[in-house]
Amino acid sequence: MNYIIKMSSKFSKVIREMPKNAKETLRHLIDDMKETGPVQPKYHNFSALGKQTYHCHLAYHWVACWRCEKDTWIVEVLYVGSREKAPY
User: Fold this and answer.
1) Strand pairing partners for 59?
2) Could you tell me the residue ranges of all domains in the chain?
3) How does strand 4-7 pair with strand 74-82?
């Protein structure tokens, strides 16, 4: 069974402004999370931010943060944007 990835439409403007390499990394990250879940250690600077909350760098200035409630198949993307404004 695949995980369900939820991402707010509010990130669409930010994603359009991201450089191509960061967009591609985000796309790969989402595809990998659908297949294997929220823990993605192969991504740059991947780390847990707390219980079931994670982040990684998409490019030097770009990050993504997400969470997955225990015992669910739903991963919610909490933040996509510059690392300077990241919520951690």
Assistant:
1) 62
2) 4-85
3) parallel
Residue 56 · residue 64 · CB < 8 Å: yes
- How many Cα atoms are found within 13 Å in the side-chain-facing hemisphere of 65? 15
CA-to-CA distance for 71 and 10, rounded, in angstroms?
27
Q: Which CATH class is domain 4-85?
A: alpha beta
Q: Which amino acid is at 50?
A: G
Dihedral sign of CA atoms 75, 46, 32, 79 in order? positive
- The whole-angstrom separation of Cα 29 and Cα 26 is 5
- The tens digit of pLDDT for each residue in 13-49 reads 999 999 999 999 999 999 999 999 999 999 999 999 9
Instruction: Please tell me the predicted confidence (pLDDT) of residue 88.
Output: 80
Three-class secondary structure assignment of 22-36: HHHHHHHHHHHHHHH
Radius of gyration of the chain (CA): 12
